[in-house]
């Protein structure tokens, strides 16, 4: 599985280069990303792929010096469970 970045979206591609999932965000000013949607095709669920999408979003925020507001319920749960994401969580 490969993660590719598009405009305000990370796309998860399977080996056939078909879309298997996505995470989207909104830009709220120059320093804030709002994760508003995470989805993985039911065929690929249970493999930790949604977690990988959120982790890729966290890495993007770190690289760009941004903070994240996790509005999507899945991303919100990830931020609650992973203390190591605290550095990019907008409090």
From TrEMBL:
Spell out the Pfam families in the cross-references.
Answer: Acetyltransf_CG
Write down the InterPro entries for this protein, in alphabetical order. Answer: Acyl_CoA_acyltransferase (IPR016181), Gcn5-rel_NAT (IPR045057), GNAT_dom (IPR000182), GNAT_YJDJ (IPR031165)
Question: Which intervals hold domain N-acetyltransferase?
Answer: 1-91, 2-90
Please state what the protein is called: GNAT family N-acetyltransferase
């Amino acid at each position: 599985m490969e993660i590719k970045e598009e405009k305000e979206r990370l796309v998860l591609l399977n080996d056939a280069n078909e879309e298997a999932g996505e995470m989207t965000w909104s830009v709220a000013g120059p320093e804030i990303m709002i994760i508003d949607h995470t989805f993985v095709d039911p065929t690929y669920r249970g493999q930790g792929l949604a977690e990988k999408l959120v982790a890729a979003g966290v890495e993007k925020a770190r690289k760009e010096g941004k903070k994240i507001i996790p509005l999507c319920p899945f991303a919100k749960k990830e931020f609650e469970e992973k203390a190591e994401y605290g550095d990019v969580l907008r409090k």
